[in-house]
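Record 1 of the preview.
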Amino acid sequence: MNKLAAVILAYKPDEKLKTIIMRLKAQNIKPDEIFIMHTVETDEDDLELSWIEDIDNVTVEKVKKEEFDHGGTRDRAMQLCSDFEYVLFMTQDAIPKNKKLTESLLEAIMADKQTNAVAYARQEPDKGCNIIERYTRTFNYPDEPHSGLEMAAETNNSIKAIFCSDVCAMYNRALYDEIGGFPGRAIFNEDMVFAGKALKADKDVIYEPKAVVIHSHNYSGLEYFKRYFDLGVSHAEFSYILKDFHSNDEGIKLIKETAKFLIRRKEYFMLIPLIYHSGCKFIGMKLGKLYKKLPKQMIDICTMNKGYWIKNK
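->
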């Protein structure tokens, strides 16, 4: 059995994808195979990745746009990797910071491979990232590693215990099957759903800060609203898993800590977008959880993932 496969989800990729592939191939522990799950709208989109033909051990798997699903497409990739012990999932905009990414994640899982189902990486902000997003990355991805099982016990099942990000996360292939894998149909948040299932099965979710990718976004208020609407839909659809993990006002805590940080830095003007964006997130999340009561026209306006509703209407 091969040791490690890497899977990168791609849609209209730019030069970052080539950088990611080259950096994966330069890792201290190189993936035996890299699979690109390429979502396409037309046959011409195949040409976007024609340059990959010259790179060894990289396979492109075409996904029709109408068939794409955050859970189902990743599960399809996992089935392609049935002969691998570990599978690294990444997005097309997450750049490995150094050569220790795969090595650090493997060490985290192999510390107890009978229990550790997934290990996810630290995300550091890109150069053009705004100050609020920079602090959010520091808040969500601290210096110290942690175990989801231990955090759940210490915090009486805080939602942070099942935090996990497929921006860069490595899965233990054997435990993936045992736990039940990704949901076949998910608008978003398939990583946290899997993490919740893992903890319920007494398997662990490991945060490993020594594994680092460069990844951040400067979302607008509307983009935050749409993203959190889809997050709310996910919480509603998978309430049977997520209901046992409480938020404990983590969102309020982040807002307060960010505000204190901005005041210390005398960035008073940035308090305005902090409040505005936080309001967009809150309203989006609340509406998403109530999506079953909303008319289709309103859902179409609110969602970031319109294809999900077409496929699952």
